[in-house]
Structure formats: structure tokens, C-alpha cells
Design brief:
57 residues, alpha+beta, Alpha-Beta Plaits, two-stranded antiparallel sheet, two-stranded antiparallel ribbon, 2 helices, binds iron/sulfur cluster
Length: 57
């Protein structure tokens, strides 16, 4: 399991600053989460001002 960033992302970078393992980086269209590094902690989801981050299904 890992969190995912959806189309609501405006590339503000807030989530990348709070991820404890540095799993979030700028992608082509919006920020992306490296599923292999993600700890499923949910910190990024709590931080996103647009609610764009949710658990993978
Ligand atoms: Fe990083 Fe936690 Fe978000 Fe995973 S859930 S990308 S470990 S902040």
C-alpha cells in the first residue's frame, strides 16, 4: 500500500516537505509518490491544501 496524488494537485510542494522518507517528488504533470518508499503514514494527505492525496485502492 502507498498513498497516491491525484489530479487535484497544483504542485505546491507542501507534501514533499513533510514526507519523512522523501518519497514525494515533482513529476511531469503533478507531484508523485514513490510507492516503494512510502510508509503509508498519511502525513502528506493531512498536509495537502487541496485534498489531492489519498490511499491507493
Ligand atoms: Fe511520505 Fe507518509 Fe505520504 Fe507515504 S504517506 S508519501 S511516507 S508522507
Amino acid at each position: 500500500m502507498a498513498y497516491q496524488i491525484g489530479s487535484g494537485c497544483v504542485s505546491c510542494g507542501a507534501c514533499a516537505d513533510v514526507c519523512p522518507v522523501g518519497a514525494i517528488s515533482q513529476g511531469d504533470d503533478h507531484y508523485v509518490i514513490d510507492a516503494n518508499s512510502c510508509l503509508d503514514c498519511g502525513t502528506c494527505s493531512d498536509t495537502c491544501p487541496n485534498g489531492a492525496i489519498s490511499p491507493a485502492e
